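Posting this for the archive.
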Amino acid sequence: METFSSASTLAELGYCLLRARGDALQAVEIHKSAFNASDRRNRSQLILRAAVSAGTTSDPAWAGSLADYRIAVASFSDSMKSISLLDAMLPFAARVPMRTRVVVATAAAVGASVAGAAIKPVTRLDLAAGDLLERKSSTLVVFSEELIHALTPTDAVDLIHRELRGATARAATQELLSVIGTGSPSHVSTDNPLADLRAMLALAAISGAPASKYFWVVSAALASQLATWPDSTTGGPAFPQMTPVGGTIQGIAVIATDAPTAVDTAYLVDAAQIALASEAFTVSTSSHGALQMDDAPTSGATNLISLWQTNSQAILAERHFGVLRMRAEGVVRLLSPDYAP
């Protein structure tokens, strides 16, 4: 019996749209012939067929036909929790609407116990404000027509899902770290992971913050070093819950990423000190665009490659979100970490 993961629904929709060159009605017919399982047919075809009327302020159920698409996006997001800082933090961060002004207390009020008829101390409350501006991460993958038709539907969906998942997680983590890491306190690595973690936790001032949820964001190379760091007593792994692709150390979730900002710097992030908004996630296809096929694109005069002339198609995934660090100590940077033996 064919198995189905709702996390791959977006990739499945992308595959059908690629085969149909963006025609939703034809994509439905392609889906019927490629996937026969009832759960696939019910969810994906409802999304492809969804028609939304004009919205009004008096209709609370407007866009209800897009519920299946929202479920697909939520499943895709859940599948990235182990590799995407944004998705890992969402359940624990302060959720606020996009494009709003956030006012936070940077120094909390402190109570005191006093004797009768004694002077009562007054505490100072420091406030700061910031704007939760919109951010966008984009993932663009190009496929040749030959590859699209050569792969079986299942293999094509797996390929699209794997590429979109990895690239989307990388892009979102890169943008997130570039925003919340700027101006945060830092610690220079001592080349001892426990000593470094202890120092970062001290800078994060975690005492008295039961709502805090911490994530240690490291490069893939550093994750491998942490997974194989030896225990000085037993000679076995010092962190048995840590693997080369992530895990936990002292109850702190470790996220391994290949985002460029994490190559020479690791980050300890308190999700409770981060304001987040996660909005639209869109998937679209094109067979008539002109692209600059370069991993490091530049502006100005460039050589553009026509998708139509090269018999290629592109799938674009775009994610809109907002992020604001509420307190500077909510993020601590670890500079130049290296735990090689």
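The chain has a mean pLDDT of 83. The chain is about 30% helix and 25% strand.
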